[in-house]
Write a structure and sequence with these properties.
Order of helices and strands: EEHEHEEEHEHHEH
Strand order of the largest sheet: 6-5-4-7-8
Helix content: 25-40%
Oligomer: single chain
Distance between the termini: 62 Å
Structural class: alpha/beta
Strand content: 15-25%
Length: 210
């Protein structure tokens, strides 16, 4: 009798996603600190599990992911996701943005500018996240943002800022142009979700300055 094919979900490893052979799964998890993975009997089930996050598929009595506090996934948040946010000291002022993994808060990328606005930072963070996931071939991982304005700008492919363009903002505008060009020349399938701050608290990528 032929052995039934399995699909392997890797939530934490050198590469994330759904793999169709054990050897591929092993290649991205062997030797990786804290690797988290599990097998499923169908590709559909595996993809659904990947989107739900690891904590939904491990017993709280045996999983390394257990916690006395409610898990993110129990609040209907997709744990295996990327969260982005920005902060600005004054508006305009010194601005920075970052992207972190939602479940661990591990920083994925970070940028800082001497002069900018919070909305620009939110926009750049979102585009940076989309490009990062696409470049690493993990576009199925969703992104959370708490900015409706940045989300709207991404949909339109334009950063609708009124920040003056001068020598102080030249480098920032170079990055804005790159972001707009990326949106114009790339299609993406990454789901973008609104972070519900009132229900869930601050987004994991928050800089904690409130």
């Amino acid at each position: 009798m032929a052995k039934k094919k399995k699909f392997y979900v890797v939530w934490k490893g050198s590469e994330l996603g759904v793999f169709d052979t054990w050897n591929k799964c092993l290649a991205v998890t062997k030797g990786y600190p804290g690797a988290v993975y599990k097998s499923f009997l169908s590709k559909e089930e595996a993809q659904r599990a990947f989107n739900q996050g690891a904590s939904m598929h491990f017993s709280t009595t045996t999983s390394k992911l257990k916690s006395k506090k409610p898990t993110i996934s129990s609040q209907n948040i997709i744990q295996q996701s990327l969260s982005v946010d920005a902060a600005c000291s004054g508006n305009p002022g010194v601005m920075e943005y970052q992207g972190v993994w939602t479940d661990t808060k591990e920083q994925v990328f970070h940028q800082k500018f001497n002069l900018g606005t919070n909305n620009i930072g939110e926009f750049l963070a979102l585009v940076h996240g989309l490009a990062y996931l696409k470049n690493n071939k993990i576009e199925q991982i969703p992104i959370y943002t708490d900015s409706k304005i940045a989300w709207g700008w991404v949909k339109k492919g334009k950063c609708k800022t009124t920040l003056p363009k001068n020598t102080k903002t030249a480098k920032l505008y170079e990055l804005i142009e790159r972001a707009e060009n990326w949106l114009a020349n790339n299609q993406f399938v990454t789901p973008i979700h609104k972070w519900e701050t009132k229900s869930w608290g601050e987004i994991p990528a928050d800089f904690g300055r409130k």
